[in-house]
Amino acid sequence: MPEITINANGPILISTEELTLKANDGSEIPLPKGRAVALCRCGQSDMKPFCDGSHKACGFEHDPSTA
User: Fold this and answer.
1) Alpha carbons 33 and 59: distance in angstroms, whole number
2) In terms of pLDDT, which residue wins out, 31 or 51?
3) Which pLDDT belongs to residue 67?
4) Which residues contact 42 (CB under 8 A, 6 or more apart)?
5) 22-48 residue pLDDT tens
6) What's the total number of domains in the chain?
7) 46 found inside a domain
């Protein structure tokens, strides 16, 4: 089962075990190789829906404990 971790001031990490990621139109989004993917939360990534580290440069801040 996939595990989801919301990082403070960073991306959402999702384990890829048994995971399928789909676009709005229902097409499957290929997952990068590895055991986890990082999904962008700041909206600045050039690799959307995946994180490329842009949250660091744009100053994205969010404390996941505040929902």
Assistant:
1) 28
2) 51
3) 60
4) 54, 55, 58, 60
5) 999 999 998 887 789 999 999 999 999
6) 1
7) yes
Q: What is the CATH number of the domain that holds 27?
A: 3.40.5
CA-based end-to-end distance of the chain: 23
- Distances in Å between the alpha carbon of 21 and those of 12, 26, 27, 58? 14, 9, 9, 26
Task: Give 13-20 contacts, CB < 8 A, sequence gap 24+.
Answer: 13/37, 13/38, 13/39, 14/38, 14/39
Mean pLDDT value across residues 8-22:
90
Instruction: Please name which of 40, 38, 36 lies closest in space to residue 62, comparing C-alpha atoms.
Output: 40
Radius of gyration of the chain, Cα coordinates, nearest whole angstrom: 12
Q: What totals of helices (H) and strands (E) does the chain contain, helices first?
A: 1, 5
Of 63 and 45, which is predicted with more confidence? 45
